[in-house]
Amino acid sequence: SLAPAQRILVADFANFTSDSLLADAVSHALRIDLARSPSVRLAADASVAATLRRMRREPGVRLTSELAREVAMRDGIRGVIGGEVREVGNGYVISAAIVEAATGEEVQGWRQTAHDRAGVIPAIDSLSAAIRKRVGETVASLKTAALATRPSFVGLRGVAPLVVIAGILDVGGNAGFLAAAHLGRLDVASILASLYPIVTVML
After folding, report:
1. How far apart are CA 150 and CA 76, in angstroms?
2. Is 111 exposed, middle or buried (CB count within 10 Å of its CB: 0-12, 13-18, 19+)?
3. Residues 120, 186: contact at Cβ < 8 Å?
4. Which has the closest alpha carbon to 60: 82, 45, 73?
5. pLDDT in tens, 130-187
6. What is the 3 state secondary structure string of the chain?
7. How does strand 106-114 pair with strand 6-10?
8. Facing residues of 91 across strands?
9. How far is residue 84's CA from residue 22's CA, in Å, rounded to a whole number?
10. Residue 116: CB partners within 8 Å, gap ≥ 6?
C-alpha cells in the first residue's frame, strides 16, 4: 500500500523585483499545483490560521520562511517550501527550496529563469513540475518537527461555517487565478494572488 501523503507548508516567497505582487502570484500558483500532488498534503489554511492566532500574530500576516518554519514546528509539519523571485535585467529568476522545519536545513532546491515577463508563467509551471516530481520522497525523509503541540478543539463549532464559506471562496479564487495565469494575464493573476490572505482574515 502507498505511504500516507506527507504534509508540507508553502511560505510566501520573498520579492526582489519592482513588481510588488509578483512573488505572491508565484507562491499562490505553487500552492495550487502542489494541492494536486498525490504525494503531499498542503497544510490547511484553517490550521495555519489557527496556529497563527495561538502565536498572537495579526490576521493576514505575511508567512515568511522563518514564520512558516515556526508554524510547521508547532503543527508537526516536517517540511517548508520557501523561495524568492529576483529581477535580473529584463528577466526574472525564481528559486525554491524545501527546508527541514526542525533544523532549518535546506534539503532540496530548484531554480527557473524567465527571460521576460511573458516567460514568468512557463517558468512557474516548470518549477512546479520539478518540485512535484521530488517533493513526496524528500519530505518523507525529513525528521518530524520537534515542537508539535496538541491541537485545540475549543470553539471549533462556531468556526466551522466560516471554514466552509472560506473554502468555497478559495476554490473560486483558485479557478480565477488559473484562468488568468494560463491566458497570460499575469497582472490579473497577481491581483487574485494578493487577495489570498483574505481567507486567513476571515478565519
Report:
1. 10
2. middle
3. yes
4. 45
5. 888 877 666 666 555 444 444 443 444 444 455 455 555 555 555 565 565 566 666 6
6. CCCCCEEEEECCCEEECCCCCHHHHHHHHHHHHHCCCCCEEECCHHHHHHHHHHCCCCCCCCCCHHHHHHHHHHHCCCEEEEEEEEEECCEEEEEEEEEECCCCCEEEEEEEEECCHHHHHHHHHHHHHHHHHHHHHHHHCCCCCCCCCCCCCCCHHHHHHHHHHHHHHHHHHHHHHHHHHHCCCHHHHHHHHHCCCHHHHHC
7. unpaired
8. 88
9. 10
10. 90, 91
Would you state the cell numbers that stand for residue 40, as one nine-digit string?
503531499
Distance CA 193, CA 57 (A): 21
Q: Provide the grid cell at 23.
A: 512573488
Which is nearest to 148 in space by CA: 81, 63, 54?
Answer: 54
